[in-house]
Amino acid sequence: MTQPPITAKFPDMQKSVKSLLGSLFASICLAVASLAQPVEILPPSLRGATQPQVAVAGNGHIFVTFGKDSSVYCTASTNGGKTFLEPRKVATLPKLSLGMRRGPRIVASNQHVTISAVSQPDGNLRAWTSDDAGLTWSKAALINSVPNSAREGLHAMTADGQKNVYAVWLDLRNKVTQLWSAASHDDGKTWSDNIKVYESPDGHICECCHPSISIFSNAIVRIMWRNSLNGAHDMFTADSTDGGKTFSTAQKLGQGTWSLNACPMDGGSLAGPYSVWRRDKSVYYTDEKFIEHLLGEGRQPVVSLGREGLFFLWQKDSQLMLQKGTEIKPIVLAETGAYPAVTSALEKPNPIVVWESMTNGLKTISAQVLK
Question: pTM for this one?
Answer without folding.
Answer: 0.90
